[in-house]
Specification:
The protein is mainly beta. It has 4 helices and 17 strands. The protein has 2 domains: about 10-180, Chitinase A, domain 3, CATH 3.10.50; about 190-325, Chitinase A, domain 3 (Roll), CATH 3.10.50.40. Strands 9, 12, 13, 14, 15, 16 and 17 form a 7-stranded antiparallel β-sheet that branches. Strands 3, 4, 5, 6, 7 and 8 form a 6-stranded antiparallel β-sheet that branches. A two-stranded antiparallel ribbon has the order 1-2.
Amino acid sequence: MPRALPILTVAALAVALVGCSSADPDTTSTPTDGATADARTCAASGPESDAVSVTGDFGALPTVDFDAPLEPDTTQVSVVSDGTGEEVPYPSVISVDYSFYDGTTGDVIESTNFTSGEEAVFVLDESQLLPGLLKTIECAEVGSRVVGVSTSDDGFGDDGLEDYGIAGGDSLVFVVDIVSAVTRAEGEAQDPVAGMPTVELDADGAPTVTIPDDYTLPTTTQSAVLIQGAGAQVQATDQVYIQYQGINAETGEIFDQTWGRAPYGGSASNFIAGFTNTLVGQNVGSQFLVVIPPADGYGEASDDNTNALAGQTLVFVVDVLAAVPTA
């Protein structure tokens, strides 16, 4: 019989579907090349995913029916309805609605409420998302509805997820509407601010920052909007998803960036003061440039302050990809 879904808060299960991330960007890391979509293998459809009956329109709570148990040898993905957008980029920040089931018992686990603007937001990256959910989403087109039947190995493995009644070894079923997938700021380009560092973007949106030869390091934080987005304003309590590049203002050296890896997700209020104060109030879809002196950054270097970035004036270029209220 079709299964009636409990509509729960997305936050309830999201911590189990995604990996953990630190409160701040890893400012000690070295930029590295990430995996690309071309190097990845898409999950194919199969008898188990094809056996899941899904009815209803994209963007509305689906009616789902299947005969449990489903016991796939590999994770399988079938397209219920094709989207008209591009294939979801890997990695990217995705907004989705989903319904989630235990494929072994047939029990309903959770659903989003399929209301515009209230989708679940994840980073589509193998280090940050449950493998079965990632494989369900990553090769589909934006606007698609897809069904994935995940093996236990691509789900919660031998441990299961006791709080949600998922036993060790259980398969999982996801029905997912892919609402959006973004990798860069999307808005209206603004005129550069005279005297500040300049930014050029490559075809993928990755920035190159040029510091003027006569640039005077500021004693207070300076910022400029480079691309004006049209999304919601970031609040201090939001979970934000961003692309960023950090540069030493004196040397022009990149000390950290998400470009070449995956976008970053974290609390808007957990960055250094100059970063948070500039980020809060920005519109989703915007890109901004901010120059942060030590007083608003990591402080002055001392015997008690040995942070690698202490005493440095920092330049960040930030693309605001999504913001999710948490309060």
